[in-house]
Amino acid sequence: MITRKSKREVQQMQDAADLLVATHKEIAKRVKPGVTTLELDTFVEKFLEEHGATPEQKGYNGYPYAICASLNDEICHGFPTDRPLEEGDILTVDMVVNLDGGLADSAWTYAVGNVDEKGQKLIDVTKEALYRGIAQAKHGNRLGDIGHAIQSYAEAEGFSVVRDFTGHGIGPTIHEEPHVPHYGLPNKGIRLKEGMVITIEPMINEGDWRSKMDDNGWTARTIDKGRSAQFEHQIVITKDDAIILTDQDK
């Protein structure tokens, strides 16, 4: 069932999102060669605790960490490890913050030191694709309008769009209806209505869009070892432009 959120529920999510944004900004200061993603995970858990919040995905269906840390060819749900980050790596950090019952979800891809030209283009195109999808997310439009905007742009730039993982509704639990594909046809799919809260989180690959699963049952990676990037915002559908709860540029 798709629900439309009250002003109170949206404000709870906004409070959580403000903390999530602050957390990502702290992570950005720490992503550099030699740092491990386990160190980032420990930092995030402590930072959230200090601010009265918890990492919502820790324990979700048995997931053991505060963040997902997906590196290079890992598409999503990467486990933090003790491998030091290296110059030129591409790292996506995805997390869900629970603050007094309000949930906020956002992923961000970070360049570790200097990334090669194609890797930087992958990051830039993925971020732009997110905002092109958000531009279509308004009352009266359909889910296909979001997916089409993302897919048509990313593919024109020479990249592929992951189809095995989608955005989603959120609140009061992490994953709710509707599923929000990052590919599709315009004027198709569920119609968006004012008050819906969804995530848009395109995962864009250098090569083939298909994925394979690691033995841990969580981490998805590209089938051809091409790199992957992801950017995610949580938004509220309105009659006009969507409100980006997880906006880092306020």
UniProtKB/TrEMBL annotation:
Pfam families on file: Peptidase_M24
Cofactor: how bound: Binds 2 divalent metal cations per subunit. Has a high-affinity and a low affinity metal-binding site. The true nature of the physiological cofactor is under debate. The enzyme is active with cobalt, zinc, manganese or divalent iron ions. Most likely, methionine aminopeptidases function as mononuclear Fe(2+)-metalloproteases under physiological conditions, and the catalytically relevant metal-binding site has been assigned to the histidine-containing high-affinity site.
Domain spans labelled Peptidase M24: 12-239
InterPro entries registered for this protein in UniProt: Creatinase/aminopeptidase-like, Pept_M24, Pept_M24_MAP, Pept_M24A_MAP1
Family: Belongs to the peptidase M24A family. Methionine aminopeptidase type 1 subfamily.
Subunit note: Monomer.
HAMAP family, per the entry: MetAP_1 (MF_01974)
Protein's UniProt name: Methionine aminopeptidase
Protein's gene: map
